[in-house]
Each structure stands twice: as C-alpha cells, then as structure tokens.
TrEMBL record:
Main localization category: cytoplasm
Entry keyword Methyltransferase: yes
Molecular functions per Gene Ontology: thiopurine S-methyltransferase activity
The protein, known as: thiopurine S-methyltransferase
Keyword tags: Cytoplasm, Methyltransferase, S-adenosyl-L-methionine, Transferase
Family of the protein in this entry: Belongs to the class I-like SAM-binding methyltransferase superfamily. TPMT family.
One GO term of the biological process aspect: methylation
Domain of life from the UniProt record: Eukaryota
Organism: Rhabdornis inornatus
C-alpha cells in the first residue's frame, strides 16, 4: 500500500473529543462545503424527501441546509459537544433520549423531527437501528477513520445504503509520508477496493 507511515496510525476517541473541547476543529466549514453544492444534483438525483446520512457529522451546516429542503437527515458523531453546538448554532430546539441498543449512547432529534443525530461510535450503528439511506455525504469521515478500520467502515456504509443510493465522498490527496493524518490519505485504488 502507498499510504506510507500512516498505515498503523490510530487516533483514539479521546483525541477526537479533545479536538472539540480545545476548539481544534479546522475541519469544520462554517459556510458548508462547496463540493456538496456543486454535486447536489448527483446526491438527490431528482428525488425529494430523501433520508441522507452524515457519518462522523460534527456540526456540519449542510445537515440543516438539506433538512430545510425537505430531506430527513441522520448523523453520527462521537462528540456530544459537537452535536449540541450544531443545534445551538442554528437555534434549533431538540430533544435528547437514550439509545436502548447502545450503552451510553444518546440520540438528539430536532423537534421538527427531520434531523436525528446519534452520539456514539459509528461502529455501534446498524441498519436495524437507523434504517437505510438514499444518500450519504461523506465529507470527512473516510479520511478520519483509522486506516486499520477502513474495511469495517466501508462494510458498515454499504450495509446502511439502499440499492439506488448516491454516495458523495470527499478525500484529500497529498504525500502521506509528509503528514501523519488525519485527514488520512486514501488512494483512489483503495476506495475502489473498499466500495467496489
């Protein structure tokens, strides 16, 4: 594999939580991601009222944008701070409830019901719990997942999508020997082998 020194790099859940606590969230885009706007038609494919999944969602502003268009948005994020900031940043009222299937997990749902954010490890989710999705916006998830967990991540994502779903994936290209990640370098060949 040409991912160099990143192959064995592991970022712990605690490190991600610390990034949020310290405000070290350079990956968050206040204005939303221009590539989602550019490829929105590919994601929606002329359909309305879709279920759209945001893996490792942080407090992505695109969740509200798509919900305002009439779609149902489901996200998963390990940082409760990020989830709560999403709702407060947009002045959205929400309710919070435990997720019976996952010890310690919580689900935060907008009172309008069209945004549901799970606060837990993404690997604790399953399609029996959250259903299947018509679209995925993977803006910083695959590149944030530890390289050793990519196969597990891809298998989960494949399990969470409907047959005719659209999966938008953003990666970054650079020399992986010069940056330890995250974001991690995921070569196109690996994306093809992960998702087929």
């Amino acid at each position: 594999s040409d991912i160099g020194s990143q192959k064995d790099r592991v970022v712990t859940e605690e490190e991600w939580l610390q990034k949020w606590e310290m405000g070290n969230i350079g990956f968050h885009k206040e204005q939303g991601h221009p590539l989602l706007q550019k490829y929105l038609d590919v994601l929606l494919n002329g359909r309305s009222g879709l279920r759209i999944f945001f893996p490792l969602c942080g407090k992505a502003v695109e969740m509200k944008w798509l919900a305002d268009m009439g779609h149902n948005v489901v996200g998963v994020e390990v940082s409760e701070q990020a989830v709560k900031e999403f709702f407060s940043d947009h002045s959205l009222p929400y309710c919070e409830e435990p997720v019976p299937e996952i010890s310690g997990a919580k689900m935060f749902q907008s009172t309008s019901g069209n945004i549901s954010l799970y606060c837990c490890s993404i690997y604790d989710l399953s399609s029996s719990m959250v259903g299947k999705f018509d679209g995925v916006w993977d803006r910083g998830a695959l590149v944030a997942v530890n390289p050793c967990d990519r196969q597990r991540y891809a298998s989960l994502m494949i399990n969470l999508v409907e047959k005719n779903s659209s999966y938008l994936l953003v990666t970054v290209s650079y020399d992986p020997n010069k940056h330890k990640g995250p974001p991690f370098y995921v070569p196109e060949s690996e994306i093809k082998s992960l998702f087929g």
